[in-house]
Write a structure and sequence with these properties.
Blueprint (H helix, E strand, L loop, with lengths): L13 H9 L7 H24 L4 H19 L13 H26 L6 H22 L2 H14 L15 H10 L7 H22 L2 H13 L5 H14 L5 H19 L3 H14 L9 H10 L3 H30 L12 H8 L3 H12 L4 H15 L11 H14 L1 H20 L1 H13 L3 H13 L1
């Protein structure tokens, strides 16, 4: 999203750069831009406020979060590629208002809704049905069809359970029961995945956006070139290391690839790597950023919530596998460079480690602070909040163009708000699926099937569960 007088691509964090490169978001100007920017800014300020002074109760925190995120999706993403990207269609304003209205209904009437749990009234059914449709459409716009299709199949399965064969059959749930369940319970749309997005993921996306504005992306690229550029096939190894370093602060694979790949892919091609190989290395390395601590993908936060353990435990468990993953990619790049005779960078093109660290060492402080706070047992919310505060302060130790002035902070808060919508959409769609799994009992049936098929052999049960998760 761009304007003539607002953020520029050079100053935007990778989350915003990603959308500019893909061209999926609208490119608005004038009052429409400022309406959307105002919603995104309000979302960022709300999450910073609750991080500082305490999260709201589950339904209120999730309701406000999805009111912002769900509305933004219809204002940012057009219905299709053929629709104009320089203005918001009237029906998208209507859909955004309906999404906000569905959330406001919960926020304003939650006590009455909770009192009549299990006894929905007509408005619960109508609004619940509307919200299911809106969540699926929001997911389609933000992510494409795969997850919304799963949500649609899950909804059909819940409605027409008696018509399914064998162990898949169940009594079925009419829309009068399913819609209020998915809408008004913390087992459906506003379930654990969206709760994780509202409590943790948004703040970590904002952390990455603000850190990128301070020049972290270029610092990571320079540091990776300094560390590996003088070895055989240095540009390829630098691409891997840069993606790994970027993965420590960004849980988005696409944002990682855009930020680092814009520089490392041309450098790899110039050094003698084929275009396909260069793209594959950056894609594989950026995907690894999902499991690179301390800021991992959304799944890590959801795992911690479902398992009832601290996020730090997930970070510790992921450290060795993530390191081995990147070592394997570096080894592959090394052997390919040897096979093709690709040399190292010269002293003129590869920066010195000392110089890079002298210029950007302060950018490591927020990351180190985040790790220390998590290790000391602070909640992920408090850890990332104080890391954000520190990052704003230490930015003034860097180059003038990377200092967090009020305008740059405003741009970062807006970009962070807009950058979190995809994850929120995925979490809301996942909530629909999880709600169906819970209400139909198919989850218990699957567990019994895995236990029976594995005959109590734990490794086999683990493999079957892995296959089921992929499916």
């Amino acid at each position: 999203m761009t304007t003539e007088n607002n953020s520029t691509l050079e100053q935007s964090p990778p989350v915003l750069e990603k959308e500019l490169v893909e061209g999926r978001k609208r490119e608005l100007s004038g009052w429409q831009y400022w309406v959307v920017a105002g919603i995104a800014l309000s979302a960022s300020l709300f999450h910073l406020y609750t991080a500082a002074f305490g999260l709201l109760s589950a339904m209120y925190q999730r309701g406000v979060h999805w009111m912002f995120m769900g509305s933004l999706i219809f204002l940012i993403y057009p219905f299709s590629k053929s629709r104009p990207k320089n203005k918001i269609d009237i029906w998208d304003w209507v859909l955004a208002a309906l999404m906000a209205g569905g959330c406001l209904n919960i926020l304003l009437n939650w006590e009455a809704i909770a009192m009549r749990e299990g006894m929905p009234i007509a408005s619960d059914i109508y609004i619940g049905t509307m919200m299911i449709i809106l969540v699926i459409e929001a997911g389609r716009r933000a992510m494409g069809w795969p997850l919304p299709i799963v949500a649609i199949i899950a909804t059909i399965y819940a409605l027409f359970g008696p018509y399914f064969p064998g162990v898949l059959a169940h009594g079925g749930f009419p829309l009068e029961e399913l819609a209020p369940f998915q809408y008004l319970r913390t087992d459906g749309i506003f379930g654990v995945p969206l709760g994780v997005s509202a409590s943790f993921i948004f703040l970590f996306v904002l952390f990455g956006a603000i850190l990128s504005v301070t020049g972290a992306g270029q610092f990571f690229i320079d540091l990776s070139l300094a560390l590996t550029g003088r070895t055989q096939g240095g540009p390829g190894k630098a691409a891997v290391v840069a993606s790994g370093l970027m993965g420590t602060v960004s849980g988005s694979s696409v944002a990682n690839a855009v930020t680092t790949g814009a520089f490392t892919i041309p450098l790899m091609k110039k050094s003698g790597y084929t275009p396909n190989f260069a793209g594959a290395v950056v894609a594989a390395s950026s995907t690894g950023g999902q499991v690179m601590p301390p800021v991992m993908g959304a799944a890590a936060f959801i795992m911690a919530q479902f398992l009832g353990i601290s996020y730090w435990d997930i970070v510790v468990a992921a450290a060795i596998p993530a390191t081995l993953y990147f070592i394997s990619i570096i080894a592959m790049v090394h052997f390919r460079a040897g096979k093709r005779g690709i040399k190292s960078l010269t002293d003129e093109t590869a920066p010195r480690v000392g110089r890079v660290l002298r210029e950007g060492w302060h950018l490591l402080l927020p990351i180190i602070t985040l790790v220390i706070f998590l290790a000391l047992g602070y909640s992920a919310v408090k850890a990332v909040f104080w890391s954000i505060v520190l990052m704003i302060c230490v930015s003034w130790m860097g180059k003038p163009q990377y200092r967090m002035t009020p305008k740059r902070l405003l741009d970062a808060l807006i970009a962070g708000g807009m950058g979190a919508v995809e994850v929120a959409a995925a979490c809301a769609c996942s909530g629909l699926v999880i709600g169906v799994i819970g209400i139909t009992g198919i989850g218990l049936a699957f567990s019994s099937f895995v236990i029976s098929l594995s005959q109590g052999i734990l490794p086999l049960a683990l493999i079957l569960t892995m296959i089921g998760s992929i499916i």
